[in-house]
# Entry
Amino acid sequence: MIKNIDEYFKEKTENIYFIQLKNDFKLKEGIEFDSKIPIPLVANNLLKEIKEGDASEEIKFKYIIEGIIYLLGIDFDFKHRKEYLDLLYSYNENIHGYILAEGIKKINDDIIEEGMIYLRALLNIDKENVKGLYSYGLALETKAIYFYNKNKIKEGNIFFRESTNQFETILDIDSSFDLTYYKLGYHYRNMKQYKKAQLIWEKFINMTSNDELKKEIELEVEVIKDDVKYEEGYNLILRGKSEEGLEKLLSLVKDNSDWWNLLFFIGLGYRQLGNYNEAIKYFNKVLIIEPKQVDALNEIGLCYANLKRFDEAISSFSKAIEIKPKDYQILCNRGMTYLQQGNLDEAENDIEKAYDMNPEDDIIIACRREINKFKNGI
# Structure
């Protein structure tokens, strides 16, 4: 399992071989190079040379250039970097354009990994090359989809996140590159960051001259309209702005009555406002759709506890613990409800179990103190 993109490409070093030139060997007329420095060659090119003749004397100059580009793409910091770069610029003053064109050609020919290596080489020597960043981002996205189709989700996520990073980098360099906004909107939507997707797509709509893509994105913005309002609403509730959050979320219920996440946050908003009966109603709706939704059961328990309906609270906490027995927070909630009920033994039993699971949790430590105070009659 790879940890990051650089590690993935570093593994490609097995495709590179280094050969030593003879002292009197000339690479190309007018180009000087220290023969003491080994020359990198891609394995396939080396095999071609071996088949065709003496590899050390009849090396085609373009194979050397390809070897250096390949090395630049898989290892961003290697010995003799300066000398290799000098050789590249001696070969072609517009080496950046050459590498970009070759990288895109390989990707279009479905040689994705080699194409990515070329684009990485370009970014190694020109990190603010917008066309290179965009093309590399597209290639990373293609590779991510490949992994997803193979059910290699973690690998897919690594490549997808790196693709997003490349597109975001472009915005810091050239905010007028409109296709970046187009792609990033889809990335944010797929990451369920709907508000970011909406904002970035609205910028694209305002700046693009491509009517076809503009119509496409206008439709996409309409499709995620409810998702955006939901995201805005639950973020308001998580920030303690329950009334504002509920105003947004309740407007979505009519057309989304089976959206349990929506119902859950409405319940949470009502609980924050102290409207426990209304909160219980919405949490119960969640359970109709998702009978084993532990957080909803826990929230119902908290609501009943606040209403001093302790038996019902304990029942709800117990159902949640049956589903998720190692959740120390729910154990702690049930323990404190037992304490409010005056059942010291059960309270102490739950709190100690919770403490064993997480002895550093501040809330559990505070609950233990409450148990001790109760035991000591304080």
Residues 77 and 124 are 9 Å apart (CA to CA). The first strand starts at residue 16 and ends at 19.
